[in-house]
Each structure stands twice: as structure tokens, then as C-alpha cells.
Amino acid sequence: MKRETLVILGVVAGLLVWLLIAGDYAVSRTNRAMIYALMALSFSVLAGRLGWFSLCQTTLAGVSGYVVAILGAQHGLPYAVVIPAAILTSVLFAVVFGVLTVRARAVSFLMLTLALGQMVWALSFQWVGLTGGYNGISGVRLPMVLGFNLNDPRVFYVLLATCTVLIFLAVHRFYNSRFGLLLLGIQENEQRMRALGHPVYLARFAAFVLAGAIAGVAGVFLVYDMGIMSPSPLSLNQAVLVLTAAVLGGYRTVWGPALGAGILITLQTGVAQYTDRHMMVVGAVLALCILRALRVLVEIPGSRPQGHDIVHITTIRSGGGRPMKTLKTIAIGSASALAVAATVNAQADDTLRVGVIGPTSGVFSFFGEQQRMGVELAIEELGDEVAGYNLEVEFYDSQGDAEVTVDQLRAMDSRDDVDIVVGPVLGGTGLAGLEWASGSGVPTVISYSAPEDITMRDRVENVVRAGWTGAQPMFAFGEYVAEELGHEDIVMVGQDYAFPYDQLGGFMRGFCAAGGNSVERIWHPTDTADYSSILATLPQGDAVLYNGAGSDGLAFFEQYRDFGMHERMPLLGGSNFYAVGDLPEMGEAAKGGVSALQYAEGLETDNFIAFRDAFWEMHGEDTMPLAPAEHGYVALKMAVGAVDESGSLDRDAIISALRDTEMEDAPRGPFHLDEYGNPVQNIYINEVKEVDGRLKNVPIKTYEEVSQFGPYDAEEYMASEPYSRDFPPSDCSDDFYQQ
Q1: Which one, of 194, 261, 278, lies nearest residue 221 by Cα?
Q2: CB–CB of 671/663 below 8 Å?
Q3: Are residues 688 and 712 in the same domain?
Q4: Residue range 329-363, pLDDT digits in tens
Q5: Are 325 and 421 found together in one domain?
Q6: Angle at which helices 178-188 and 153-175 cross, to 10°
Q7: DSSP letter at 624?
Q8: Which of 61, 153, 400, 616 has the most crowded Cβ, counting Cβ within 10 A?
Q9: Residues sharing a CB contact under 8 Å with residue 437, sequence separation 6 or more, in sequence order
Q10: End of a domain among 338, 372, 402?
Q11: How many C-beta atoms surround the C-beta of residue 483 within 10 A?
């Protein structure tokens, strides 16, 4: 029997044995490793055969994933149409990219693929009507086939493993074909291959398209594995991870990408179990791999492997000439993965385990840290035991990424046996969490994440919310602006993504119902630093509403005043615009700024003061508890209260108790959940004032018991189309507002 056949049989046998002995979480991580292996293989076809390092292979995979989500989840086309269309679209993008890059060399090729990839990544954020922007497109599911649920991780594993092995075998054959050897010859001596009459550029182009097709297959599996498609798989971070997997395993061999992907996923999974600083370890490995890759790329003397000068193409053989050594290496890697996956905490039946997920690293870590601090205060108040159960709370870092969120949630359920989930915090991760929860059945209390459909059109029985929807506080704010401030025409400048759309939708409904006339829309991309072109042509109105927050909001606030616009029109804020964290930078000029939220740092109720003082005692008076902290605090108390009420860890009993939540003593004010699982609560019109030497949002008017549907009938509200950059209409005389 040939050694090559032994390698294949060994791989197949290993995959079958792993399916039989591994737990559900280990199987799901293996699925992710195989998907990364396909993307790394796509990279290696170019890097190993041509010496090209491409940073757009994840982009091609992402394009395929978006086609699946758009055609399948949004338009309901059959899978027999969706999947081929997705792969074909990836191939078409590869054709376009190939035309633009095929004549480039080394660093130029890398930079071109980086630029093309980032262009598509940015487009996925900005073309919200097609891609869903940051929130992405959820509800991507596989069908039942012959009684088998392809969404089950083990059934999915069989399908994915079969396709992965077949693709790797096909690439192995390709590497040893005349065309594969031609590519290797082009890498070693392009001029000689051209002199021998070989079509060098056409061969490169064909290789790029082939790699794009492999990436397209990987993208199809990725979106079905995640259940949601967002911009994160197209990011530079993902491209670097794929490069790392290829370099780590050996991109010059056929099986190297599989080995590298397995090691990378094992490293991510294993280290995360033992330290919150796991990204530092993974980052160190990434840095070493990138340095190695760059050493080859710039051709430092001694970096290229020594080999014979190529004269006759028929004498070349691929780099996979040591199959037994490869098999042994893969076996070692698999054994290490098994060791990590088997490291599961021993679970006791008398423990209530709560998993709290939010971004504690990355650009959104502020929100995750606020949630964490609120949860820690709730833990201290609740004590170590609840309803006869020991309380155990574990924190998980979502990194603000939908893919990471799904992986962490799977770890909670399959590896750590968590009973209840608290979080996520952000919009896109909240939708990813909803998609996961719909399949897992784990009781979930969403804390701060605000997309409407979490508790509306896409609601599921086991998910409730402790926080809000984006539109909820803006119903009241629109009414206040029209009735109390007397404004009739508003100019809205806002960040161009889903959350500000929801905010404006709620504002428009309240504003128009209260006698407003119109709202002029001006959207801008996120991470905008210069607003001069917007401010120079700003239409006249009674007031300007800035619908956004963060660094964009600060830049707009400062430039608005620099242009003297505040003397013409007062500046109103979306719910997060006058956030306490930004007020010190806004300074005295922020005084008088008005916004609306279900929370206010300037509340003077006994419950809020007790919460604030306890928070300061634990975390220091320099840190003001904001809405994410209060919502995390409340979410944990809701979760624990449901167990206390039900008297058991039975999921159905916990879910039933959660849905009956009424909290009269919440720091923000009393609330209860509506039949869809969202709080009916106070909304505060807040004004920025200086209190005890500190700028705060102080309530100046309270709207009590505001629902996520405002004053509208729930079913009629949900029958309307979701808010978008152009909906609802800007003119209050439109028939939409007369219903």
C-alpha cells in the first residue's frame, strides 16, 4: 500500500475516531478548525506554488458567506441555488481581483490584496441595506436532509469533514499535476518558464481563481457554522489568522494548512481556559509567524529553501514527499487538541453557573468593562448561595466580534455547562447570541444590546432582555422635542449603521405624532474625523440632532461649535451622544445638552443612590456607573431571581420565571417585561448639568411605562418594515404617519 494512501486512511480514521470520542464543544471547535484549514489552503495554493502572500482570501470567503445569507436567509431561495451562487460569486470576485493583481510581485501583490480586501470589508459595513452593516444578517440555517439536522454540530462535522478531505485530496493531485508543477517552476524561475513558452500570467490568474473557489467553499461552511454573517470574517484580523495558520503548519505542503489551523484553534481554545490574557499568547504566535512570513516575502538571503535549478518541468515534484512524517505530525497535533478539549471542569449538580459575555478587550471594551463591574456588584450583594445552589459566575470576552461571541457561547453550553447566559452587550453580538440561543435553548438575559428584533420579529422563547431597544427612548424624545421644545423641522446627522436607524425611527414616530413637520437626514460613515463638508452645507432647521456617539460624536460636537453652528441651531443628542464618559472632553459647552435614555446618572431616587454608592465603594468614585453597568447588574439579578422563583435549574422553569420578571427596585426605576421579553420602563429626558463639580445627565422629565413599541399596537408595529437609512419617511405628512 502506498504511503500516500496510508496518510489518507489515517486522516479519515482520525476524523471518525474524533467524532466518536469528542464532546460537543470539541466537535464544534474542530468544525471551525476545518473551515480555517480550507481558508489557509486557499492561501497556500498561492503562497506555496507561486510565492504570493494574499490577504484577501478571507474577503473571498466572506463574499460567499454574504451571498448565502442574502439569498438564503433574507430571500428564502433553495439551497441548490444559494450554495452554487455563493461559490460562483466568490470565483467572480477572484476573477476581478486576479485581473488587478496578477502582474504584481511580492510586496506589491500583498499590498494590493490587502487594499482590495479592506475595500470590500468597508463596503460590508457601509452598505447596510444589503449586508445589515455591523449587525449583519442572522437566521442562516441548514435544512433537514433525510431526517438529519445539518445544523447539529456532529452532522455538520460529517458533511464538513467529507468536503474538506475531498478538497485537500484534489489539491494534492493538483500540486503534482503538470499545471501545479508549472506554478512551482514559475516561482523558482519565471523567466525560464516564459522562455520555454509557458503562459505565465494566465497560469497565475488561473491559480488565483482556483484559490478563490476554495475560499468560496470555506465561506459557505463558515456562515452556516456561525448562523450569522457580519463584517468580522472579512477583517484584516481574520486574514492574518489565516496567514498564521498556513505559515504555522507549513504552506509549502498540502496538509500544512490543516495542521496549522488545528494548532491555531487549539491554542485559542486551550489558553483561553486558563487566562484572561489568552490573546497575548495568541498574539505572540501571530507575531512570530508574520515575521517568518515577511522574511520569506522580502527574500532575505538564506530564507528560501535550497533546491535544484529547474530545467525540465517534468522533473519537479511537490513538497509533500514525506507523507509518513506529515501523518505523524498531524497525529501529534490531534492528540494535543484532544488533551485541551478534554480539559473540562468537573461539574457539580448543586451549582448555579452563570456565564457573562461582553467585550473586555478591543475597541468596545468600555461597554464590557462597565457590564462586568455591574455584575460584580450584583455578585457581592447576592452572596455565594442562591435557592440552595452555589453561585458561580464566569466572564467571557466577546472581543466585540460575532464569530468570537458564538464560539464563547458554545463553550459555555457544551464545555462549561452554564445554566444561564447574561449578555451580550453590542448590537451585532446580541444578534449572534440570539441566533445561538435559538438553537441551544439556554436561558439568556440580553443586557445592553439594543437591536429591536431580539425581542420582536426574531424573538425566541428562551431570550429576554434587561435593557432596551434603540427606538424605545426616542419615542418619548421625539414627542418632547415637538411638544416641549416647540421644534418643527429637525436636521439629523448620524452614523450610517443599524443602531442610529432604530434611534431615528423611534424619534420620527414620536416627533411626527406630536406635531413635527420634517426631519432632514444626513448619514456619514463611522470613524469620520472631518465634518467640514457636512457643516458647510448644513440645511436650516429648528435644531440639529446628532445621532451617534463615541469619537465620531466628540469630533462632531467640537467642529459644530468651531463652525459657530450652535448659535444658529441647538444641538440635540441621540441616547449615547452626551454619555458621561465623553462629557469631560466636551467640557462646559455640553451644559444644556438634551437627550433621552432609560437611565440617568443624575437620578436622585433611593434605589439609584444606593446602587451608585455601592458601585463607588467597590470600584472607586472616579468611575461613574453608566447604563451598561446597571443593565449588567439587573440582568444577573433577573437570572438569579428566576432560579430562586422556580426553585430549580430546569430550563423551562427558569425561562418561565424570567418572562414573569417585575423589578420594582431597579436602580433606573421600576420595570416589568412585556409578553415579548423586553422591559416596559421609565424613559428620562436628560439635560447635562454640573452636579457636585461633575457633569451629569440629570432627568428633567419622565415618561413612565414606555414599551419597546411606544404607544403603538405590537403586532401592527412588527408588521411594518424594520427601520433603515430611508425608513420611516422624513416628511411627517406622509401616509405612514397617518395610520
Answers
A1: 261
A2: yes
A3: yes
A4: 444 444 444 444 444 444 556 899 999 999 988 77
A5: no
A6: 70
A7: -
A8: 61
A9: 409, 421, 444, 460, 462, 463
A10: 338
A11: 15
Tens-digit pLDDT profile for residues 271-302: 666 555 556 666 676 677 666 655 555 553 33
H or E element in which residue 403 lies: helix 402-410
Supply the pLDDT for residue 332: 46
Asked if 495 and 504 touch (Cβ cutoff 8 Å), the reply is no
Element (H, E) at 352: strand 351-358
Give the integer Cα–Cα distance in Å for 92 and 100.
13
What single-letter DSSP state applies at residue 648? S
**538 & 589 share domain:** yes
Domains of the chain: total: 3
**pLDDT tens string 693-739:** 899 999 999 999 999 999 999 999 999 999 998 999 999 999 999 87
Distances (CA, A) of 496 to 83, 156, 401, 489, 552: 30, 36, 19, 21, 11
The DSSP-derived string for 503-514 is HHHHHHHHHHHT
- Residue reference for cell 461613574: 624
544 phi, psi to nearest 5 deg:
-110, 135
In a domain, 38, yes or no: yes
pTM value surpassing 0.90: no
List the grid coordinates of 302: 538564506
**To which H or E segment does residue 662 belong?**
strand 662-663
Please provide the average confidence, as pLDDT, over all residues in the chain.
88
171 and 308, same domain (yes or no): yes
| pLDDT profile of the chain (739 residues), mean per 10 | 72 88 90 96 92 92 96 93 96 95 85 94 86 86 83 92 94 90 85 85 93 97 93 90 88 89 82 61 67 55 39 38 45 46 52 95 87 97 90 93 91 93 93 92 96 95 97 98 97 93 97 97 90 95 94 94 94 92 89 97 96 97 94 97 93 96 97 98 97 93 97 95 93 91
Residue whose cell numbers read 476573477: 95
Grid cell, residue 451, equals: 437591536
Domain extent for 536 = 472-597+682-738
* Three cell numbers, residue 323: 507523507
What is the grid cell recorded at 106?
511580492
In the block, cell 467585550 appears at 359
Query: How many whole angstroms separate alpha carbon 245 and alpha carbon 40?
Result: 6
What size, in residues, is the chain? 739
Q: What are phi and psi of 691, to 5 degrees?
A: -125, 120
Residue 411 has what DSSP assignment? I
Return the C-alpha cell found at 450.
439594543
CB 53 within 8 A of CB 40: no
Three-state secondary-structure class, residue 236: helix
**Residues ≥6 apart with Cβ < 8 Å to 426:** 359, 364, 367, 398, 400, 448, 449
Residue 45, CA atoms < 13 Å, CB-side half-sphere = 28
- Which cell goes with 346? 468537573
If asked whether residues 510 and 430 sit together in one domain, one would say no
Closest-CA residue to 38 (of 189, 182, 165): 165
Helix locations, 682-728, DSSP H: 714-719
Q: Within its chain, how far is the Cα of 163 from the centroid? A: 26
How do residues 575-632 score in pLDDT, each as one tens digit? 999 987 788 899 999 999 999 999 999 999 999 999 999 999 999 999 999 999 999 9
> Collapsing DSSP states into helix, strand and coil, what is residue 306?
coil
Alpha helices per DSSP H over 51-189: 57-68, 79-101, 106-126, 128-131, 153-175, 178-188
Alpha helices, DSSP H, located in 515-605? 532-536, 550-562, 583-586
